[in-house]
């Protein structure tokens, strides 16, 4: 991916853009202030009561995970939805395709540049998350599962955005459509989680929260027990969800590559023709 010309071009342009650096700094500072204020409260309570609030540290860690996944869900699709549609709207797509550049280079370059940008926000806050684990432990297998969930979640929502970008001629329409699709998927999972969690963009977050801390009071407050967690929230379903969402992501990326190839008809155009 380092040799991908689109990825290198967009990365070089972003390195000259101070707004991304400022956004990362503000995001990190906000997370740090939030985490330290809670940790200071827990440590003060432990000093007074001679009793460490382990549940509080665990809840803090889980809240930080929620912030990460919410950030992925809100920001990443917007990045990828603009990827191809902006190039098409500015007519530069036709110039790029007239060169030796292949459609897969354009799609993968846009896809992984967007993931790279979001990873800057996630990875730079990793030390803050580790601070919240100072009085508790999470097993290695759960951390590996969580890391895989981060990767697949980012690829999943990014591939939805890049696919929609490949079929929309206008960038503003692509943005609107991608968020409508994601909101619809989230609402489906809220009202019928047991039957839709495999394709829900929030399922991996909920499954990992339950896997990391079963029976934590935070779950009672969220009402997660209404979904019969012993059947839905299991390590088996985490792996199944990872596999399904990874498979869907690969299909969407392949369709995006097909749609971006100007020598072929866009599948959206084919659909209209068949109608």
Describe the structure concisely for a colleague:
By secondary structure, the protein is mainly alpha-helical. It is built from 14 helices and no strands. The chain is globular and about 70 Å long.
Structure description:
The protein is mainly α and 275 residues long. It has one domain. Helix content is 80%, strand content 0%. The chain contains 14 helices and no strands. The protein has helices at residues 5-15, 18-49, 54-89, 92-97, 103-124, 126-132, 140-167, 171-191, 193-196, 203-212, 217-222, 229-232, 235-260, 267-274. The longest helix has 36 residues, at 54-89. It is globular, with a radius of gyration of 21 Å. Mean pLDDT is 80; it is low at 215-230 and 269-275.
Q: Largest sheet, described in full? A: none
Q: What does the overall shape look like?
A: globular
Q: Overall mean pLDDT score?
A: 80
Low-confidence stretches: 215-230, 269-275
Q: Could you tell me the strand content as a percent range?
A: under 5%
Structural class: mainly alpha
The strand count comes to 0
The topology string of helices and strands comes to HHHHHHHHHHHHHH
Percent of residues in helices: over 70%
Cα radius of gyration in angstroms: 21 Å
Distance between the termini: 39 Å
| Helical segment count | 14
For the record, the count of structural domains works out to: 1
